[in-house]
Amino acid sequence: MNNAVTLRGIVKQFDSVTANAGVDLAIDVGEIVALVGENGAGKSTLMNILYGLIEPDAGDILVRGTRVRFTSPLDAIRAGLGMVHQHFMLFPSLSVAENIVFAAEPKKRGLLDRVAAEHAVRQLAGRYGLNVDPAARVADLPVGIRQRVEILKLLYRSADVLIFDEPTAVLTPKERLGFFDVLARLRDQDKAIIFITHKLDEVMAISDRAVVMRDGVVTAQLETATTSPRAIASAMVGHDIDLTSRVPTGHPGQTVLVVEGLSALGHGAHSVRDVSFSMRAGEIVGIAGVAGNGQNTLIEALIGLRPIDTGRIEVSGQDVTGAGVAGRRRAGMAYIPEDRQSVGLADAASVQDNLVMGHHGQRSQGGFLRLRALAAFCRRLVERFAVKITDSRQPASALSGGNQQRLVVARELAKNAPVLIAEQPTRGVDISAVEFIHTELICHRDAGNAVLLVSADLAEILSLADRILVMYEGRIVADIARARANEAEIGLLMAGQRPT
Amino acid sequence: MSPPVSIWRWLAPMFAVTVTLIVASLLIIALGKNPLVAFAALVDGALAGPGLGNLQATINRSAMIVGAALAAGLALRSGFLNIGIEGQMVVGGVTAAITAQWLAGVPVLGLPAVLLCAALAGGLWALCAGLMQLRLGIPLLISSLILNYPAIYLASWLVGHPFRDVTSGMAASPRVPAELRLSPVAGTEIYLSAPIVLVLAVVMALFFRRMTLGYAARMAGMSPRFARASGISVDRLGAYVVFASGAIAGLLGALAVLGEHHRYIDGMLVRPLYAWTGLMAVLLGGTGIPGLVAAGGFFAALSTGAMGMERAADVPREISRVLLACIILLVAARGSARLGGDKG
Questions:
Q1: Does residue B197 lie in a domain region?
Q2: Are B113 and B185 in a shared domain?
Q3: Is A57 left (phi over 0), alpha (psi -120 to 50) or beta?
Q4: Residue ending a domain, choose from B284, B307, B328
Q5: In terms of domains, do B96 and B160 share one?
Q6: 3-state DSSP assignment of residue A25
Q7: What pLDDT is stored for residue B1 in this prediction?
Q8: DSSP per-residue string spanning B41-94
């Protein structure tokens, strides 16, 4: 055994919540460990403790057998640990080399020695097979390459324990494979790697060992070679679940949404160009695509948050092209936004204030809110959607991610809109919330409504959608009925290739 | 995680006040005076005095400060930072003084008409700033601030030249005709602005808590992107609240003209720093109505008390400015500390 890091009896309490209740975990040199568990299981807390961002209440951290105490990430970095966060911490306007050597720059006469920096980066990149152009500006690079820059940053500081927080969430399928290659190469160079993930196929594809956390403790450690996704999933939720089911297809009826020749300007390359499609009542239409190919622009243009250049939008036979958000919602649209924190909710507002938004008009009289009706409505939704709250007056920010999302989903579903736009409805929520939200979306469809589902998770689209649209560079490049859909083909279309 | 928030909201200003008192004590000791005597004089100067005269002065001052705080708070709670309250007050005040000349002798409707004109003028002045943000993209913080200066100088010119009362030695409008004046609350020296501002505070609390539009405004203030995605027209809402905010300021200016000085005197609304103290009250007390009223009253007491302290204990009244600055710094520091250490 050759332990890189050992955690012993880690305990961390936040007010009344025990995030870590005595966690034991050892990671060996030359090993890839996948850390899985539902939201709130304590994974992030554990990794933040390991990286020195949080101090544990009790327990020991050992690095290569020596006990250490981290009061800040600087201590952790010095001890040879490095972390790649979900949101990259790079300076977009600086070059790759400048980003990598930041805070440990090679200097010449007190100034950054750019030549030496680029040379060092090139050498490092060559050693680990991480191809980057040291002189390129980070802002100009695709996400997959930016991630490499993050990794090189750690390697430059000679980290040999690498922590990744949901590293593949932002990658294309192809970039994902490239990332796995990098991980394997790092492992072969005797690095110890821990990555947090929600995707079981990734655990199976790349890890040596899956560490499952639930309720603040490690509940299972499974050798990847001898386990199955189902076993991991069961360990995560504590009971058996079914991963493979595809919901039965819906029975499409009348056309409820028509989009014709829609073009809208987004940020940079995210514009939408000449998009046409329609949706019928009783079907779920999935939009697949790598993040940043115009999905978000399309959705904002549909709901009325973004002006459109050309095109026409019709909801239930009513032309809403000229209407604002309010008009489109009145015509029968509801919207679960991708950005839950700042668009889906008002973080600081109470649970009730968040739930009644858009329902408050019907529960008003003569300009005054009918408070009792609102409270009753709120109670009903909290119960029906099993939102875990202690008080309807507590701020939404006090809820876990999964519960916040239930709040948003509850509010929008309760509008009974013929056209529901669900943008990344299950991103970053735990498995039981995912199951619940999926079931609710299907119920909504079966009640005779249309659901437009945008997701970066192809598996989600494949299991829910009756029809799949693939977006690439602002256009819809394919419209595939579910019966004919297969993952490999859609993956190619998402990457801009025509399957042959 | 969740419950300590409301306690903290009250505890933090208390903490700021305590620290400030300590700092002030040290300063007073450095001046060679007894801080206890000085504070006793401060309290006496703010809340007692012969015939409770000082208390009445404090209440009158509170009315203006709280009124300004309400005007700013209305906009701020809806997510719009209107810091041009001062200019809007001045516009309202000078409008009242001028229209009162024209409407002299109009029975019954004269007074409401003057008040309405003043509110309208203040509201439109604020709306100019509001439209600069909504149409031209100039942040309201800046547009509302810069409109203060033309308002103040325009008023100064109006009462200095075309509408000057030539019988008086100062730059002031002629006296408001007697039938358009507001008399103080019966049997006291408390101007009518105090009860009116109190009513306004209640109405505003009601607006945010009970009214449909108030709910929308509150949500827009907490998260404009959320409000927009939910179908609330945040821009139109902003135009309404900024107008209303300016109208309250304008009304306040008119109340000071009709009830207190009975004319517009150049600088009468600017020199006492009503608007800026009101903005500080919003900063200290938050946009919740009770906190805002309490903070406004506290600041008013501090500045009337300071005069008493100067008279009785021979401690310069500028000490009260130091106190104020100290509190604001502490409160602002708390705000940024919380912004920085949010994730737990």
A1: yes
A2: yes
A3: alpha
A4: B284
A5: yes
A6: strand
A7: 37
A8: HHHHHHH-SGGGHHHHHHHHHHHHHHHHHHHHHHHHHTT-----HHHHHHHHHH
Interface contact A361, partner B, CB < 8 A: yes
Q: Give the chain A residue whose CA is nearest to the CA of B209.
A: A369
**B338 and B238 belong to one structural domain:** no
Asked if A321 and A488 touch (Cβ cutoff 8 Å), the reply is no
The 10s digit of each residue's pLDDT in B138-193 is 999 999 999 999 999 999 999 998 989 888 888 899 999 988 898 888 888 889 99
Cβ within 8 Å, pair B228-A15: no
What's the pTM value of the predicted model, to 2 decimals?
Answer: 0.74
Q: Who among B2, B211, B227 is closest to A394 (CB)?
A: B2
Look at the block and give the residue holding tokens 């501090």.
Answer: B302
pLDDT, tens digit, 9 for 90 and up, residues A375-429 = 999 999 999 998 888 889 999 988 888 889 999 999 999 999 999 999 999 887 8
Helix (H, G, I), strand (E, B) or coil at A334: strand
- pLDDT at position B210 over 60: yes
- Chain A residues touching residue B77 (CB < 8 angstroms): none
- Domain-terminating residue out of B259, B284, B309: B284
Minimum-distance CB partner of A346 among B219, B231, B344: B219
Question: What is the greatest pairwise CA distance in chain A?
Answer: 74
CB contact at 8 A, A95 and A138: yes
Same domain for B6 and B87, yes or no, is no
Q: Are strands A450-454 and A284-288 parallel, antiparallel or unpaired?
A: parallel
The number of domains in chain B is: 2
CA distance B90 to A487: 69
Tell me if residue A220 falls in helix, strand or coil. strand
CA distance A181 to A129: 9
Check whether residue B337 and residue B248 sit in a common domain: no
Compare all CA atoms of chain B with the CA of A15 and give the residue at the minimum distance. B1
Q: Which long-range contacts (CB under 8 A, 24 or more apart) does A363-370 make?
A: A364/B212, A367/B211, A367/B212, A367/B213, A368/B210, A368/B211, A368/B212, A369/B210, A369/B211, A369/B212, A369/B215
- Confirm or reject contact between A14 and chain B (CB < 8 A): yes
Smallest Cβ–Cβ distance between B219 and the set A328, A337, A353 belongs to: A353
**Is B24 found in the same domain as B81?**
no
Residue B215 sits in which domain range?
A: 71-284
How many angstroms separate the CA of residue B161 from the nearest CA in chain A? 46
Are B6 and A395 a contacting pair, CB within 8 Å? no
Contact A348 B230 (CB under 8 A): no
Q: Does residue B272 share a domain with residue B148?
A: yes
- Confirm whether B214 is domain-assigned: yes
Q: How far apart are CA B132 and CA B138, in angstroms?
A: 6
Residue B11 and residue B88 in one domain? no
* Amino acid letter, residue B112: P
Could you tell me how far CA A189 lies from the centroid of its own chain?
29
- Chain centroid to CA A200: 14
Mean pLDDT, rounded, of chain A: 87
Please check whether residue B307 lies inside any domain of the structure: no
Cβ–Cβ gap A344/B215 under 8 Å: no
Task: Give A55-58 contacts, CB < 8 A, sequence gap 24+.
Answer: A56/A10, A56/A11, A56/A12, A56/A20, A57/A11, A57/A12, A57/A13, A58/A9, A58/A10, A58/A11
Q: Say whether residue A307 is in contact with chain B using an 8 A CB cutoff.
A: no
* Closest by Cα among A373, A376, A442 to A409: A442
**Cβ distance A124 to A141 under 8 Å?**
no
Residue A269: pLDDT band by 50, 70, 90 thresholds?
low
Residue A353 at interface with chain B, using a CB cutoff of 8 Å: yes
Q: In chain B, which residue's Cα lies nearest the Cα of A395?
A: B2
Tell me the average pLDDT across B53-75: 93
Residue B311 lies inside a defined structural domain of this protein: no
| ipTM surpassing 0.85 | no
Say which range, A66-70, A110-114, A262-266, A467-471, has the weakest mean pLDDT. Answer: A110-114
Q: How confident is the model at residue A65 (pLDDT cuts 50, 70, 90)?
A: confident
Give the DSSP H or E segment for A416: none
